[in-house]
Design goal:
562 residues, alpha/beta, six-stranded antiparallel beta sheet, 21 helices, 15 strands, 38% helix, disordered N terminus, binds zinc ion
Amino acid sequence: MVIFASHTLRRSRRAGLSSPRPLGPGDSHSEEAKDVDPLPATASNSPATSTADRPAVADPAPSPIATITLTPDEEVLVQALIKRGLVTFDQVHSAQQYGLEHQRDLRQSILELNLISPELLNELAFERLTAMAQDVPEKEVPAKPQAPVPVHTVPLLPNRTQHHRDVRKELQETTLTAPLPQVVGQVLERAIDCRATDIHFDSQETGLRVRYRIDGQLQDILFVEPSMATAMLSRLKVMASLNIVERRHSQDGRISIMHHNKPRDLRVATFPTIYGEKIVIRIHEVLTAVAGFAHLGMSQEQAEVIDRLIAQPYGAVLVAGPVGAGKTSTLYNCLERINSPLRNVMTIEDPIEHRIPGVNQTQVNSQGDMGFSEGLRAMLRQDPDVVMIGEIRDEETARIGIRAALTGVLVFSTLHGSDAPSTISNLYNFGIPGYQLSSSLLAIASQRLVRKICPYCRVTFAADEKVLLGLELDPDEHRDLRLHRGLGCPACFQTGYMGRTGIFEIMMVGEELRDLIFQQIPKDVLRRVAVDLGMRTLKQSAVDKILDGATTVEEVYRVVSF
Ligand SMILES: [Zn+2]
């Protein structure tokens, strides 16, 4: 859409910010104005340009703004900025000129000229989107700018306002109006909607605090008045078929609810504290359709490496990392990839998180006589081609697993270990000799999960030289680097993050490493050689995720040690 300078000026005049020389309708300049107007009225599709408004363009030096195309978005932005007195018309004008000269869009120009802060600009955008969502029917929301916009330089603003749901506010309102069973039902349902893995109900002196664990971190969700607190806890205990009178001892139970027509199983555990009971509800994560290695967060090269590895007829592929690092998802991906009617694929897990059709899955029974090692031994008598061991926790399981890998079975497993080379040390410590490891190991992957930046409140900012040095990046090479972060909004519970992605370090055991492992060479040497051979370390993979704009510097520091 082409707008006239008059259009903008007219509005700015109303806001009292236009040029200091007001022109009356009878002013003699009016007539001249029509002549010097760089764009005749017929060229405009702006219906707001009427003759009465024309004097506004009659400044002796007609501004080049009239020839600049503003997208509807930009137009609204300019109006909002001027209305609030955040910028003057002259500043907008110079931003537009700057944009023309440097091929920037208006937002970027405003930011680069430091006219207002990215935070403020983003705040405005939110208000605008909220207003649009409330006032304008969905189909009338102006289209996105058509001009090609360099993505990495633009604050990536949300455009899906309907997803912008304030769960906290919603629940707070429900507690005031709805009956208790409905409130409790909503607390459970919203938790699943928000991808929470746990719900905490903490009895406190002043009431009941409700928190969700989302992407690994607890978030305050709701505060319940003391008058309602006991009733809420009792309601949960009734739903879980627990003894509501028993408050001094911990109890375990289950709640089954339907969520979007799917049954969901919630595990409930109570625990006595000084201010009353604490209840934690664990939501069993449903690992949905396996989406592929790239979707897990692997780089193209890493995905190709894994694809090559799992095509091997036998050997061991191990995934290392702390609890909750997404190791099981990676293994399920491998299994889905190689699962076929031609192969006998068997697993022993604790618990079974995802069912794969055609795979013989077995649950470890820790109370009975079917631990990992017993189960694995029995499984190897079932003529398996592929075996997945949920976790190697003890020497016995490690020994049986590695022996199987030596004797013609493709073995997948997870184990604790900070990175790929130190996992090999852990296996030495399990009493597995170097010669066995060297001829059975195909690769060790190490994995972590980092939180992704919330798409609804994402902004960009110029990278600081200190930050670059901290990330081991060359400040000269990355002079114009812009990093991303989330400001925090209701959609992400003010954290600035939403969802998680994996970072990987994949150490392929090729000929050189095999020799070193055979000699039980210490992990530092293994690491150096692996890096020389092209292994991308966890740290490097994490930095890649920062440069891609997937996550923040702070998040990477939290998860990976530098
Ligand atoms: Zn957000």
